[in-house]
Specification:
It is built from 8 helices and 3 strands; from the N terminus they run ααβααββαααα. With about 120 residues, the protein is mainly alpha-helical. It has 2 domains: about 5-80, Arc Repressor Mutant, subunit A, CATH 1.10.10; about 90-123, no CATH class. Strands 1-3-2 form a 3-stranded antiparallel β-sheet.
Length: about 120
């Protein structure tokens, strides 16, 4: 990932409403949500939500698909994971095994830590 792409993503998530909308879509997984349901869940006017979803779509953080008269939004999970990889690829000077104590001190769930913790087992 290029720094310019990461910066664009962070700018798109810098609004509290956009961050909440993205996190809501992440929770929905591949099913996503239609715009009206997102607006209701966030208690946000549809016109305001449209502005925020457009910014997220422009950065590539959400995809949108027309379904009849509705638009279904989905979080771009692969891009989110690519951003996480970009942020952590140089962790601990490129030696992530030395970061295990830091992972344990984080507020990440055990499942997340296990998924991103380096494999120390050589078998």
């Amino acid at each position: 990932m290029e720094t310019r792409t990461a910066t664009s993503i962070f700018e798109s998530l810098s609004s509290g409403w956009r961050l909440e909308a993205f996190r809501l879509l992440v929770r929905q997984g591949p099913d996503g949500m239609v715009a009206g349901d997102i607006a209701s869940a966030l208690d946000l006017a549809p016109s305001s939500l449209s502005f925020h979803l457009k910014a997220l779509a422009h950065a590539g953080m959400v995809t949108v698909e027309q379904e009849g008269r509705f638009q279904r939004y989905r979080a771009n999970i692969p891009l989110m994971l690519e951003l996480i990889a970009y942020l952590t690829e140089e962790c601990c000077a490129g030696n992530p095994a030395s970061c295990i104590d830091l992972l344990a001190a984080s507020s990440c769930s055990t499942e997340v830590v296990k998924a991103i913790a380096p494999k120390t087992d050589k078998s």
